[in-house]
């Protein structure tokens, strides 16, 4: 794999060291994993990632008030894990997304209660934002949280929730009624064993991950579970996505790099008409396009992560660009790799076939590609009008 990007000015020496150390670890621990039982595989991966210390990057240290999430480290970890094993990337990413709101907005007590458990792999986290009638349109969420003395009563449903059914804690977003649209939502930390929280359906996808539909039936939680200020849940959700949206692009980049490596190996070792496949100019054209898209995606991803780590309050435009381009182009890169493998490319169990199934969901979750275009357009217009 081309590692020259580790010397780009977006990254610092400790990032390069992190990438190299994780690469060696992944080579030893992420080969020939048993994914037949997805729930069991995810539990084992979370435990292993926690025991080896990699999950310490997924959330802040509750004992260090100065600790911050490092977006570049998150991207490097996701890219590396995805290149080796998609479920390992998923297991790491959901720990970060599930506790992102606690890291950014949690009280000292909330951090002390949950982050030592998720950072060590002893507890699994989930981010419960999506609803049956509102996917990327978060402002249209209808689940409610009604005040009842020192408690809130949660009523409604969430769906397509990653780690749903195996999580120990959920970050849940519900409407508290301070206003319409994005103005009347709040965020809560809800333990999985809370009375009234039900896993009503497990969901299957083309690339298996733990997913579920959740129902909150008069689910009563203390006011102390509120994350941030009441009515500021939309801000909480968008702040978390600002950090983690570029990492979705990083995972796609990991898939794309693996697809390019597989395609190169194929082209140098497969002969056609007595010469390596790579000798065909059309094949060289495919490889050139794949390499170009990999580097362009990496530049957008690490620019967004660098901007966030450099102190930018919001990187909505940069994050949307990184997520959109990296996931869409990874789809094209992997498709080319499948094509270059011929019949073997669509055989069940091959690396490129697995990548083909893995990449599709990344163009949907944490804001579908079409939604990212809307975000970029609005941000660009706002900058034009403001400038």
Radius of gyration using CA atoms only: 21 Å
| Beta-strand proportion | 15-25%
Number of helices in the DSSP assignment = 10
Main sheet properties: 4 strands, mixed
Low-confidence spans: none
Report mean pLDDT, rounded to a whole number. Answer: 94
Number of strands: 10
Structure description:
The chain is globular and about 80 Å long. Helix content is 51%, strand content 15%. The protein has ten helices and ten strands. The two termini are 42 Å apart. With 387 residues, the protein is of the alpha+beta class.
Question: Which features does this protein show?
Answer:
387 residues, alpha+beta, four-stranded antiparallel beta sheet
Question: What is the fold's blueprint, element by element?
Answer:
Blueprint: H1 13-29, H2 38-51, H3 71-84, H4 86-105, H5 108-119, E1 125-128, E2 144-148, E3 151-162, E4 169-175, E5 185-191, E6 197-202, E7 211-222, E8 226-227, H6 233-269, E9 271-272, E10 275-276, H7 281-309, H8 316-340, H9 351-360, H10 369-386
Parallel strand pairs: 1-4
Antiparallel strand pairs: 2-3, 3-7, 4-5, 5-8, 6-7, 9-10
Helix pairs in contact: 1-3, 2-4, 3-4, 3-6, 4-5, 4-6, 6-7, 6-8, 6-9, 7-8, 8-9, 8-10
């Amino acid at each position: 794999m081309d590692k020259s990007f580790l010397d780009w000015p977006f990254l610092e020496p400790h990032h390069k060291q992190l990438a190299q150390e994780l690469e060696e670890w992944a080579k030893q621990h992420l080969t020939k994993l048993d994914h037949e039982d997805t729930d069991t595989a995810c539990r084992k991966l979370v435990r292993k990632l926690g025991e080896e210390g990699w999950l310490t990057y997924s959330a802040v240290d509750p004992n260090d008030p100065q600790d911050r999430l490092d977006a570049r480290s998150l991207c490097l970890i996701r890219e590396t894990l995805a290149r080796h094993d998609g479920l390992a990337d998923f297991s790491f990413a959901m720990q970060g997304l599930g506790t992102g709101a606690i890291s950014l907005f949690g009280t000292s007590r909330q951090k002390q209660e949950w982050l030592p458990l998720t950072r060590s792999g002893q507890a699994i986290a989930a981010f419960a934002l999506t609803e049956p009638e509102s996917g990327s349109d978060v402002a249209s969420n209808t689940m409610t949280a009604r005040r009842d003395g020192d408690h809130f009563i949660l009523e409604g449903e969430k769906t397509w929730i990653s780690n749903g059914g195996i999580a120990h804690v959920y970050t849940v977003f519900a409407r508290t009624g301070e206003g319409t649209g994005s103005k009347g939502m709040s965020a809560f930390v809800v333990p999985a064993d809370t009375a009234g929280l039900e896993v009503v359906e497990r969901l299957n996808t083309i690339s298996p991950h733990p997913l579920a539909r959740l129902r909150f039936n008069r689910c009563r939680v203390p006011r102390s579970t509120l994350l941030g200020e009441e009515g500021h849940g939309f801000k909480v959700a968008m702040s978390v996505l600002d950090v983690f949206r570029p990492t979705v692009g990083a995972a796609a980049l990991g898939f794309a790099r693996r697809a390019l490596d597989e395609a190169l190996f194929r082209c140098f070792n497969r002969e056609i008409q007595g010469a390596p496949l790579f000798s065909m100019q059309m094949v060289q054209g495919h490889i050139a396009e794949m390499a170009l898209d990999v580097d362009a995606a990496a530049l957008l991803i690490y620019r967004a992560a660098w901007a966030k780590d450099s102190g930018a309050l919001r990187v909505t435009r940069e994050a949307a660009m990184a997520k959109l381009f990296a996931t869409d182009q990874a789809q094209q890169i992997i498709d080319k790799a499948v094509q270059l493998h011929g019949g073997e490319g669509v055989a069940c169990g091959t690396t490129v076939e697995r990548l083909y199934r893995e990449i599709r969901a990344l163009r949907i979750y944490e804001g579908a590609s079409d939604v990212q275009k809307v975000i970029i357009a609005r941000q660009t217009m706002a900058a034009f009008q403001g400038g």
